[in-house]
Write a structure and sequence with these properties.
Blueprint lengths: L2 H19 L12 H10 L7 H10 L15 H16 L8
């Protein structure tokens, strides 16, 4: 991991901890495992995601609660799949699927 990735991860964690300190209940969100993140990315045709995106998913990727307003009514698997889609779209990491 390079210094830029480490800095990005520290930044994400700092923001997350600040939100927790401001009142978001830590137990109200559930993170995704690296395996779940990889599976969601692969399902969308992606092969990777930036370290900051992966860190967000590790913190809130399975069930984001109030972190992502309006997403609490979807199933956790759908949330993770949608996060994978957003990560792929935002980072242009996916190659077109060939059939």
């Amino acid at each position: 991991m390079d210094s830029t990735s480490s800095e990005a991860i520290r930044g994400i964690r700092t923001v997350f901890e600040a939100v927790i300190a401001d009142g978001l209940r830590r137990e109200s969100v559930v993170g995704a495992t690296d395996a779940e993140i990889d599976t969601a990315l692969a399902a969308q045709g992606g092969s990777g995601a930036p370290s900051a995106v992966r860190e967000v998913l590790r913190l809130v990727g399975r069930s984001p609660g109030l972190w992502l307003a309006g997403s609490g009514s979807r199933r956790a698997d759908d949330d993770l799949r949608h996060e994978g889609e957003r990560a792929r779209d935002a980072c242009h990491v996916a190659e077109p699927r060939h059939r």
